[in-house]
Sequence to fold (379 residues):
Amino acid sequence: MAILRCPACSAEAAASSRELVCSCGEPFDVEHAFRLVGRETFDARGLHSPAPQDSGVWRFRELVYPRFPSEAVISLREGNTPLYASAALRAFVGLEQVRLKHEGLNPTGSFADRGMTVAVSRAAANGARHLACASTGATAASLAAYSAAAGLACTALVPSEGAHAAKLAQARAFGARTLVVRGDLERVRVLARELARSGALELVDERNPFRIEGQKSIPFELLAQLGWRAPDWIALPAENHGNAIAFAKALREARYLGLIDRLPRLLAAGTECAPASRSRSAERASRALAETHGQAVDISAEQLASAKRAIDHAGLGCDLPSAAGLAGASELVRRGRIGPEESVVVVLDSHLLAHGSDGADSESALEPELDVLRRALET
Ligand SMILES: [Zn+2]
Fold:
């Protein structure tokens, strides 16, 4: 049994609903009943398991909603990402127990694949033919790959400002169509929602609660890798609100099921925590942080760059925004907020090759109007 519930006004919708955002404007949460499953169920599964349990998401299938028959799962064997230890990075943070969970080693190079396997499996099972997203790159590349695996059409609406040319090339290679629209990501997100309302395409956006369900597998997997001994802290880039929300939900569920006996604290680090905190998703992310007695920490652009250099020089590598967690952990150690005996897992969102925001081709950008986009989609 599962329902969608609005975390703001408690309104309910059926789990099969096509509308994933409450009428009050807040994205729904998935609430589902759990079968009681123990650690041994998950510990017995791995890369040797039959598909789809060889995926780091579907290894935890009892904890991820919806539950599909195996043959209905669209998986690229996402997850199973390494948990690295590095003497150089221990020295950088100034702590004995530091590990790095590298989500950049997913099939398309980012954590987004964890959510896409769930959201695209659901869309395909519900008969969707054409999936779409608004994205500057990583989401588009991931949605394009999973749409291709499902045999569905995919369109990415891309803002002319802040797009990652390499990630868009990746999306096109997977067969997706990319429409560059003049403006920034927020503007293009609004247009994408309006387009989806007409029913021509199904939006798999950042508000999709089934992507959150898949992203929960990051903390499940790192806890399993640590023998279910929860670390004191898990450090994330603050700009990834979806992961903060997914992590808090997963940790709550893991404790409820007795998989862990205490909640790690979430640490969200970013160079612009304050300005972003006005959006709904940022408010939800800060509630998620509070739920784990976590902490948001501001870091400077220099601290971010220096953390990235340390990660790159340790041979791991990541894109610039991914380095925020390590910079934040190091700052909290410096302030004495993280004690010398405490342990930290730092999550890296994306691969080194996702680095750089080099802009989309704004020469041919479409005007940000619904009619223009509709015509572009029809040609
Ligand atoms: Zn509501």
Observations:
- Residues 241-256 form the longest helix (16 residues).
- The CA atoms of residues 212 and 246 lie 5 Å apart.
- The mean pLDDT is 93.
- The pocket of zinc ion is lined by residues 6, 8-9, 11, 22, 24, 26 (CB under 6 Å).
